[in-house]
Amino acid sequence: MAQAAATEIMEDEAMIDPQDPRPESLPQRVWESIQRDELPPADDRGRMRVVMNNLVLHLHPSKVARPTLKFTYTWGLGGLAILLVALLVITGVMLMFVYTPSPETAYQDMLKLQTEVWFGQLVRNLHHWSGNLLVIVAFLHLLRVFFTGGFRTPREFNWVLGVALLLLVVAANFTGYLLPWDQLAYWAVTVGSSLLSYVTLVGEGLRSFLLGGPEVGAATLTNFYGLHVAIIPLTLMGIVSFHIWRVRKDTLSVPRRLDGTIDDLASAGSRSVEKVTTLPHLVARELAFALVMTGLILLWATWVDAPLEAAANPDHSPNPAKAAWYFMGLQELLLHFHPVFGAIVIPALALGALTLLPYQRFDLQAEGVWFRSRKGRIMAIVGAVFGLAGTVALVLVDEYALDLPRLLPSLPTIISNGWVPLAALLLLLLGYYAALRRAFKATACETRQSVFVLLVVSFVTLTVIGIAFRGEGMALMWPWEVWR
Amino acid sequence: MSEVNNTAQSTRRDFLKCAWGAAGLVALVEASGVALSFFSPRTTEGEFGGVFTVGRVEDFPPGSVTPFNNGRFYLVRLADGGFLALYRKCTHLGCAVPWNPAEGRFVCPCHASAFEMDGQIINPPAPRPLDRFAVIIADGVVKVDTSAPIQRDRTNREDAVYA
Fold it and tell me: Which one has a higher pLDDT value, A38 or B42?
């Protein structure tokens, strides 16, 4: 017996491999099975390994070009968008526990959320403001990438993904807009979804499919809830991961000055790019920025409550019934064009142009230079001035002086208030392009940028007019009369 | 000989590829069909969409507009005694159009479309007159069938129903 036991012990000892590098203590073994690399890493090699072997950090490259860390180049907008998505997921899941998507309960749940649930108002505010901020941040991110030429080869497709993400963000906002089931929600969604019915042939079917019936009701609420909490977030997160991963594969464009030198103190005057490890140089900046922004959003959400109006009443449209603020540009367009043009043709043209933008020939070595060149900067200002003045002038003329359907009574309004003004506007734009290109002796890409600025400023102007200058009966008035 | 074999093999491979592709396509179409019908709107019986008995002819004086919120329509009795049931949904973007008795017209709060008492457009952006529902008058009783709104490009005298 004793001998048998001794043999066993000997066999056990034989099982221990003296070469085994694993530590003896159990907690340490568990920890190292989770985190394989040494923390904190001892050298650059170790830092790169940590990034490569970490699921989340792995979306980053292990090294980044030092000049791209400059805050005033990216303004941290992509990272801020990610932070907002994270905040939205956390607060959104919390809200799911206190909300039932049915017309009988939804509005009551909102009231309870704001009065009975601990920190309910704060969580709702955080969700509401983060969602609204995300629309702005995503749009600014798009502008930043455009104005620094960040969409150039090989990054064209990532621009397209970005446009898709912007649409998803708007869709998430729009579906979430209905959930409180107050007057604001009900009528904004009624108006917004009616735009769909102007799509030829399939529009009406599409609309009733989305709403789950002929008008906004119980089925709409469940449909929008499912879209808002499951389908859109999942799609969004899938494409976001792809988007960031593509940034890693394609690298960030490097900021340059007008003379083409790299815009970075450390590499002053040089044309070669220094690289630093992502950990800690990029990650530390990201975390610091995320902390500051989280703090600011918390402050804002503590003091400013998300709006909640009276419970939805299908018998009574409020006056004025406005769409969500990010659709106000579109709604303003609808006041001037036949609905097919205001809701379908013009937005589709704009979206098509936006998507295909990076595939245009780029005839300038200007990647990383803000607004392409000195000439490009001046032309951008010209575009902004024309966009602002032109839009205001056209809105005023159409409101007070020009009545195309009455001038052309023999034509159906889809022509007199659709094709005619659209053709006139496109001709004006073409004229602007040709005249500007000639006046400045500019390249196509500088001129195109000026047209882009003009259109963006027009859109923003329309949005501001819709939000602040349209009051009762959608009449034009001063902001202090609108918010009296 | 081997050449012939090769050709024969790749033809079979092509055929199988095609067959797999087609089967995959059919499966995709089927799955889409399932998803589409699963999510398609379900209609509720006995609510908006049915026939409403609204009252007797003499209950509505000529030149009156009476709202019926459950039926989503206005029963209009024109000055000449004709009955019209107007769908209250604005033909522009779907807002509920209120009747303004002071001005004697329908004015949409959303985009300022305005309509005459018989639904005719006074002010765009609405692209067509207010839709109407069929009015049935039998033995002095007025009924409105809300199952299908009737769209029209312009108003006609024949739209109205007379007792």
Answer: A38
Domain ranges of chain B: 1-42, 51-159
Percent of chain A residues past pLDDT 90, beyond the cut: 60
For B109, the closest of A320, A331, A338 (CB atoms) is A320
Enter the ipTM.
Answer: 0.77
Interface membership of B112 toward A (CB under 8 Å): yes
Q: CA of B42 to nearest chain A CA: how many angstroms apart?
A: 7
Alpha-carbon torsion angle A437, A440, A441, A443, nearest 10: -60
Q: What pLDDT score does B149 carry?
A: 82
Give dist(CA A189, CA A219) in Å, integer. Answer: 13
pLDDT digits (tens, 9 = 90+) for A400-415: 888 777 777 777 777 8
According to CATH, the topology of domain B51-159 is Rieske Iron-sulfur Protein (2.102.10)
Residues 6 or more apart in contact with residue A445 via CB below 8 angstroms: A360, A361, A362, A363, A364, A366, A372
Instruction: Evaluate whether B93 touches A454 at the Cβ level (below 8 Å).
Output: no
> Is A224 part of any domain?
yes
Residue B143, H or E segment: strand B141-150
Cβ-based contacts of B72 with chain A (< 8 Å): 215
Closest residue of chain B to A190, computed from CA coordinates: B94
Asked if B39 has any chain A CB less than 8 Å from its own CB, the reply is: yes
Query: In this structure, are A43 and A91 located in the same domain?
Result: no
Residues A278 and A419 in one domain: no
> Do A105 and A142 lie in a common domain?
yes
Quote the domain boundaries for residue A42: 2-53
- Which pTM does this prediction carry? 0.87
